[in-house]
Write a structure and sequence with these properties.
- The protein is of the alpha+beta class.
- The chain has 2 domains: 95 residues, SH3 type barrels (Roll); 81 residues, 2-Layer Sandwich (Alpha-Beta Plaits).
- The protein has 4 helices and 8 strands.
- The chain is flat, with a radius of gyration of 27 Å.
């Protein structure tokens, strides 16, 4: 029994030591990343940034983590190591341009080429969409009830994103209705099976 206890205690210390080393490495990575941000200044407090498509203003930069205030007025706390390893874009350095992504699901019987042409024409007609940067309309995957497509474009400034997205949704919906392109809702098929009650004869007493 003593031998079993010693093995269990040794196994526990090994697992604890491994977890402790991983925790120490993560803390060290965040601290080093904080120093890189402090000295190289890829971003500054108050600057507009884009992290993997999540845009907002840099609220604070600490040694271990930084805080980004999103356009939904939520504070996004990110470890500095994760911040530097992400697709980080300083919108000030990119001339205040801001990327906007939209996802739409369309019905399976849709003419995909026609759908793409309609959206490209809408993007061309929208004056707030930058024309010197290429917008994209790509089909992403086959969903449970829709074919998912992703629209990516650039606007002149972060403040243009919300009104541009709003107007694009209205224009795309109107164009889809005119061209009989449907945006289906999620649906599930339910199968009902009738179970017949079978009476078993009483057992002989």
């Amino acid at each position: 029994m003593l031998q079993a206890y010693q093995w269990s205690n040794h196994h526990y210390h090994r697992r604890f030591g491994c977890g402790n080393r991983l925790w120490t490495v993560e803390i060290g990575n965040n601290l080093v990343s904080g120093l890189i941000i402090a000295f190289e200044k890829p971003v500054n407090v108050g600057g507009i940034v884009d992290v993997d498509g999540q845009g907002g203003a840099m609220k604070s930069i600490g040694f271990r983590s930084s805080v980004i205030s999103t356009r939904e007025r939520r504070d996004l706390v990110m470890p500095n190591g994760e911040l530097l390893n992400s697709h980080l874009m300083n919108c000030k350095l990119s001339g205040n341009r801001r990327r906007l992504s939209m996802e739409i699901g369309i019905a399976y019987h849709t003419d995909l080429q026609k759908c793409r042409e309609i959206i490209h024409q809408i993007l061309e007609d929208e004056e707030r969409v930058l024309k010197n940067t290429k917008s994209s309309v790509n089909f992403e995957l086959f969903g449970s009830s829709t074919i998912e497509l992703k629209i990516q474009l650039w606007t002149r400034h972060l403040r243009d994103n919300n009104p541009t997205e709003n107007d694009l949704i209205i224009a795309i919906n109107d164009a889809f209705n005119k061209n009989c392109i449907k945006i289906p809702f999620n649906q599930q098929d339910i199968y009902l099976h009738q179970i017949l009650n079978r009476q078993t004869p009483d057992k002989e007493k």
